[in-house]
Amino acid sequence: MEIKLINIGFGNFVAANRIVAIVSPESAPIKRIVQEARDRGMLIDATYGRRTRAVVVCDSDHVILSAVQPETVAHRLNLKEGGSNDGGA
Questions:
Q1: Burial grade of 63 (CB within 10 A; 0-12, 13-18, 19 or more)
Q2: DSSP 8-state class, residue 18
Q3: 83 — pLDDT class (breaks 50, 70, 90)
Q4: Do 34 and 13 meet the contact criterion of CB atoms below 8 Å apart?
Q5: How many other CB atoms are there within 10 angstroms of residue 3's CB atom?
Q6: Which long-range contacts (CB under 8 A, 24 or more apart) does 10-18 make?
Q7: Model confidence over 49-74: pLDDT tens digits?
Q8: Sign of torsion, CA 64 24 20 3?
Q9: Nearest-CA neighbor of 50 among 12, 19, 89?
């Protein structure tokens, strides 16, 4: 089985098959998820001190913070999975 890696910024990669969700960090429920992951020691901060723009939730209960927009991460994920880039037409 081939492991596909997705670039989440600054040379950091996540295994594509482990991603459950890619969300914006703005809402209160997502902020709660991030705080709970921090308390459990399951938070990975890959922002290099920059503003968090995307929160990646994994099937292992790890939560990863990225400084890249969620749309950008999702686009990279679609490209890796062989998704079309035709704009949905």
A1: buried
A2: G
A3: low
A4: no
A5: 9
A6: 10/46, 10/48, 10/67, 12/46, 12/66, 14/56, 14/58, 14/64, 16/77, 16/80, 16/81, 18/58, 18/59, 18/60
A7: 999 999 999 999 999 999 999 999 99
A8: negative
A9: 12
Distance (Å, whole) CA 56 – CA 44: 10
CA distance 70 to 75: 8
Mean pLDDT of the chain: 92
The dihedral through the CA atoms of 52, 50, 34, 70 has a sign that is: positive
Beta strand 5-9 with 19-23 is unpaired
Residue 13, both tokens: 């990669």
Please give the pLDDT value at position 89: 41
Q: Tell me how crowded residue 27 is: count the other CB atoms within 10 A of its CB.
A: 11
Token pair 């037409």 is at which residue? 89
pLDDT higher than 60, residue 8: yes
